[in-house]
Structures are given as C-alpha cells and as structure tokens.
Amino acid sequence: MFPLLLISSPWFLPEEHQVLEELFAAGLTTLHLRKPGASRAEVEAYLQAVPEQFHGRIMLHQHHDLARDYALQGLHLPAATRETWRGRPAPGQHLSTSFHSLDELSRHRRRYHHVFLSPIFNSISKVGYSAAFPPQELVAALRRWAARRGYQPQVVALGGIDTATLGPARELGFTGAAALGAIWQHPDPVAVFRELQQVAAQPL
C-alpha cells in the first residue's frame, strides 16, 4: 500500500475534529498537525479534542514539548527550525522534516522516519507555489536514493497531490504522498480521501 499522509489545514476549521475522526475511521494513519501561529494552549486544546485512540497517528509540527504528555506518532521539524532543534523524540516516536531541494535531501544527517519533498506539482493550497522539479531529475534522484545502502527515510511527495497527481507521484519513485488542499478545500473531505485511497491501492 502506497502511504497516504494528510497535513492539517493551517487554519482552525468549523467541524474539523468531526471530519478528522471520520478520516481516521476511513483509514488515515498519519496526520501532520500544522497550525502556524497557533499558541501552545491552542495546539494542546486541539490534541485534547482528538480521541485518545488516535493520538498515535499524529505528527506534531510545533510546541514539541507537548509530545511528553501525549502518546503521539512523532515530531516534525519544519525547515526553519531543523538546524537549531536540539531535542529528541520520545522512545518509539518518529521524526520527520521537510526539504525543498534535492541537494538538501542528499545532505541530510539526522535519522528521519520520513521526509517531505516539495513542491512536486502545482500547489492546491498555495497560489503561485509551482512545481519545482523536472520529472526526469526527480526519477534519477529517487532511483539513486532507493539504491543507497543502509539508512534512508521514506521520501514523501508534497505539493499538488490529488486524484490526478497521486498516480504520477508513485511513478516518479516516491514512497508516499501527503495531501492538503485536495482534502480540506473540498466540500466532502472524507469522500476525496477515499478516492485517494483507491488510487494509492492500484498496482503500478
């Protein structure tokens, strides 16, 4: 199964938690909780509103100290904080980060479970945030990456992921994809997620 991750809306949405519970029930295994500018209290309130049985599916993008009090899937280091962060995830928790160039990806040193590479396709949620990688360059780089011996995190495609681009992301050689705008900007997020699941389950 091609892993399908979800990044939260950067804004607090009406009925967001109800939709999120439906997404978890539909099979969502990883939510990246990203609310830029939200206070620690707001992020903690968000976590408290999520049923405890789903906490292990959440990757936290900010206020990482909250992970000490909640059994989360892990921590995500945004690019702006990656070099200065000196903490470590709790035992059993994952660590992830975001890259925006193949050079960054090749030079990473920390042991991540998965990394985002973006933007792969024209962004749905950010106007003017366009695909930044020639397909042939991506294919070659990801093939070299897959051939490396020893440690290597999963490389997850981010940017413009929807039912039309999920298949091409797999064909490029990514080991997963993360959706954002395709889900949260649709009037029926759960239906779109199920459609994405069907695409992810198709054989290459």
UniProtKB/TrEMBL annotation:
Organism whose genome encodes this protein: Hymenobacter cellulosivorans
InterPro entries, per database record: Aldolase_TIM, ThiamineP_synth_sf, ThiamineP_synth_TenI
UniProt name for this protein: Thiamine phosphate synthase
UniProt-listed CDD domains: TMP_TenI
Residue ranges of every copy of the Thiamine phosphate synthase/TenI domain listed in the record: 15-183
Sorted UniProt keywords: Thiamine biosynthesis
Biochemical pathway: Cofactor biosynthesis; thiamine diphosphate biosynthesis
Pfam families referenced in this protein's UniProt entry, alphabetically: TMP-TENI
